[in-house]
Design a protein that fits this description.
Elements (H helix, E strand, L loop, with lengths): L1 H11 L26 H10 L5 H13 L3 H5 L5
């Protein structure tokens, strides 16, 4: 992201050289372990949801039934 920002600053004439140009990305270990709720865990969660604030109920239901991640749910806007 910084690389993109600095490239934009070069394009706008604010700087002449991108300080990120020679930076290397760190190695990242990939862990593709996906956790799923069991049927019992889903039943327990659904039994507890009515005690929560309506906003949190909606977040949990969207996560469970649509498979969205927290950042994706937080980005939703309702008009």
């Amino acid at each position: 992201m910084l690389n993109t920002i600095f490239n934009k600053a070069i394009g706008w004439g604010y700087i002449e050289v991108n300080p990120c140009a020679k930076a290397t990305k760190p190695k990242r270990t990939k862990t593709r372990r996906i956790n799923y709720y069991t049927e019992e865990q889903i039943k327990l969660l659904l039994s507890v949801i009515p005690n929560l604030h309506i906003k949190h109920q909606l977040h949990i239901k969207i996560a469970m039934f649509c498979g969205l991640r927290l950042a994706e749910i937080a980005g939703l806007r309702f008009h």
